[in-house]
Amino acid sequence: MREQSDYPAQDGKSELKVVKQVSYSTDPADFHYMTVNVPCQNACPAATNIPAYIRTLFEERYSRSYELNRIANIFPGVLGRVCSRPCEDQCRHGEPELGRPVNICHIKRAAADYRREGHIYMERLFAPLGKSVAIIGAGPSGLAAAHDLSTIGFKVVMFEAFDQPGGMLRYGIPEFRLPRDVLQAEIDSILRLGVTLHTGRRIGADVRMEDLLRDYDAVLAATGCYTSIPLGVPGEDLPGVYAGLEFMIDVTSGKAPRVGEKALVVGAGFTAFDCARSALRLGAREVSICLRRTEEDLRVTRDEILEAKREGISIKSLMLSQRIVGQGRAQGVEFVRTRPESVRADGKREIAPIQGSEFMEPCDTVIVATGQRSTPFDAPGEKDRHGILTPLGARGARTSVPGLYVAGDYATGPSTVIQAVAQGRRAAEVIAEDLTGGTRRQKAVRMEDTTITDRSRSWDYIQRQEMPTVAPMAKRLGSADIEVETGYERDAAHEESKRCYLCYLHYEIDMDRCIYCRYCIDVAPRDCIKLVESVETNEAGAIVGYKETTSWRRVNAVMIDNARCIRCGECARVCPVDCISVTKVELVERLSMEGGQ
Amino acid sequence: MSGEHYLIIGNGPAGREAAITLREKAPQSRVTVISKENVRCYQPHLLPQFIAGQVSEEELFTLPFSFFKERDIKLRLGQCVVDVDFHKSQVTMAHKEIIPYTGLIIAVGGTPRIPERCHRYRDRMLTLKTLTDARMWAEKLQKVSSALIVGGDLTSFALTRTLLAMGKRVSFLLNEESLWPVRCDDQVFREARVKLEQGGVEALRGTIQDIVRRSETSLEVTVDNKTFETGIVGAFYGLRPDVGFLAGSGLTIERGILVDEYLKTEVDNVYAAGDCAQVYHPGLKDYWVSIGYGNAENLGRIAASNLMGEKTPVETPQESILCAEGVRVNTSWWLEF
């Protein structure tokens, strides 16, 4: 389905002018195009329109850049600091011969840092529906759902077990990575929509599920993962051994756990790094993170590894804990060496312990941060073996109990903040559909004719701008609440934004006008322009492959492979007959008037 | 000539010996050596003497170009590999060329390691790994009378001797990160200090807080709370394997590319040798790295032989082997200063 929404051109007598040629599509072929050609947005669980917010930041429209983020991910200021950045792994700038990915996350933070003071949130609000939803858990997933449900017109009431909202953002992430004023401001931007928040109310203890199911039209459980998974080795109950998550909750609640001189952290995720860096700030002189695999396999960002090392934390690889030893207190951990084995179906290598390679690492503090899982609570419905409600359906939000939904880490197991936000938004969408009988928001591909941008080829060679951090180290480690990353200066953010290849620009050769001069091929920075004999399409009609040829007699078209194109614009600049057009193609969310009552 | 193409990445002692061995064992195959540096193989341990002018540039080189030409070993110097696709058995070059191979030996060696703590002022420190580095040292030393050596590895002690011979005033800063890859504890520090002071070097202990450039010939260094001036700061924190281009390729990399006792990686036709390899030793049930010129030559030969179908294990490390941070090394160079 394609829908034209431009102002039609007139015969010169009318006062109306053509402002934009814009069309929206829900054609599967166009959605397929977006997944292949805008890899950063496709990698973002919340489908943030990354090229658009980077471009608006380049134009120094910081508030607009912030809004483009907020439309998709709700917490730009938070995510600009703590996102796991799946987008950067897919950024074209990181492809083998192109250099390093664009620092997408830090540009997001710059948008949050430099937006206008008192900027107005651009929120489209539906009229109240007269229906209510209870959300259990005010973490990123619950808050994201609360935001969406409120804007749609539901009355939202949240129940949070801790004293303050934020969930893992507040109790799992240390302040030196995420300042609490930034977090609170973005939580407030959701609560201001009329959300009622009850803190200190734990499901099962202070609130009963049957009461909620009776009193509300829908109940969403987004209670997160707060049960630590133990190592399962002897000695884990010795004093001086902490579960990673409990350790972090104590740190972030101001109850400083006792840490000795030498701490070993077992684990490979963000929690392990947060524990290690917090232990250093609590007075440990020597902190090591112990991995079964290698640094290469860590699930944290490169920046996180770098900062941990800068602070003096060592990362030790290929070791598997066997037991914790000590007389009355942890005094060491016995490990065995591991070695990589065959590759599993998920692409990761099996790691096997090497029998007989035992060795001891002395320490006085052990922090076990090997993972956590959801905590069960009393509720009707189908559950797994741990007593967790089983998510049903493709979007994983419904349960076997009508009116009861699940979202976030509770439903999926431990994930990242951006995944939790996306999950919460998806659950809100499902709840709205079930309670109103229609959709309120609809994904569409927006296409707008545009001219070639002012992007210069020389920008491809700009080095990635690194995030400045607090120095000297004594100042950084002197307090647990000094934010380590200080944020880009405006100039650095602007410079970094130039590096984006703007993959939302679609380049196309008009074959009726092409004179086959091949100038475009001569200037192409990589094999992105092809002499094509035929194209291969899928069931949706999307182009999924080309049959290339080197024989002129067989050439039926000269085509730009947008999956290889880095939008440098060189082809369009050299084209003598101006037959290369540029269209801005964006995956957006449109408000839908369909359905509802 | 057969259709087989053996590719060696790295033109150091391991790469050079691997190429020569491959040519001997596969006379009909194509053998190509790719190197980032645009000079032929040289002896890096002679770089300190080159800086002092005791050895000419020509004397650094091990073999003439004609040697490789006669053996039909193709040298591609000044070219950089940016990616390896092990499924397709091909490498991608920085200049976008794709080169297929039948067998691959990775012998890229190490690149100077600068601890993350020092990244803030790394542009104010010199390293010494390549001929380009050595030229930079030679040029700077003409203008300054003093040098501060931080870290401390095999090269730093040789360079210190050179600097003393050149009449320069040398200070040597030792701390926990010094003497890579050995842990510099109190006993090791005392040993190293005695040796250094006997040789006329001022031995300091502490950690650099900052380096500020005052002029072209003067740097202001703050060690703990003490500030002093020096002409050059040399950083010698050892090496890290120069394998950034292999990130995400599927090979397991810890302190080097993990290989078995036959130097084979997890990919069948791919071997690693020299400083960039971390070798599993079944006797030790652990991994070890071998550093030094002679060891690298030996590993290069073994990797090439095994790529050609032999089954030669790497020799057991010598008894002087030390274990540091889980890595076994066979050196204690400060005792020889």
Compact description:
The complex is a heterodimer of chains A (about 600) and B (about 325). Chain A has about 600 residues and is of the alpha/beta class.
Q: What would you say this structure looks like, in words?
A:
The complex is a heterodimer of chains A (597) and B (337). Chain A is an alpha/beta fold and 597 residues long. Helices cover 29% and strands 21% of the residues of chain A. Chain A has 20 helices and 24 strands. In chain A, helix 4 crosses helix 7 and helix 7 packs across helix 18. With 337 residues, chain B is an alpha/beta fold. In chain B, helix 1 runs parallel beside helix 8. The relative contact order of chain B is 0.16. The chains are: A alpha/beta (597), B alpha/beta (337). Chains A and B meet through helix 14 and strand 13 of A and loops of B.
Sheet/helix structural class of chain A: alpha/beta
User: Shape of chain B, please?
Assistant: globular
Into which percentage range does the β-strand content of chain A fall?
Answer: 15-25%
Helix count of chain A, per DSSP?
A: 20
What Rg of chain A is obtained from the alpha carbons, in whole angstroms?
A: 26 Å
Structural class category of chain B = alpha/beta
Helix content of chain B: 10-25%
Question: Could you list the spans of chain B in which at least 5 consecutive residues all have pLDDT below 50?
Answer: 319-336
Strand fraction band of chain B? Answer: 25-35%
List the strand order in the largest sheet of chain A.
1-2-19-24-20
**Quick one: overall form of chain A?**
globular
The greatest interface here is: A-B, 28 and 27 residues
Helix content of chain A: 25-40%
Mean pLDDT of chain B: 87
Give me the oligomer status.
heterodimer
Main beta sheet strand tally, sense and closure of chain B: 5 strands, parallel
SSE string of chain B, helices as H and strands as E = EHEHHHEEEEEEHEHEHEEEEEEEEEEHEE
Distance separating the two termini of chain A: 25 Å
Task: Extract low-pLDDT stretches of chain A.
Answer: 1-10
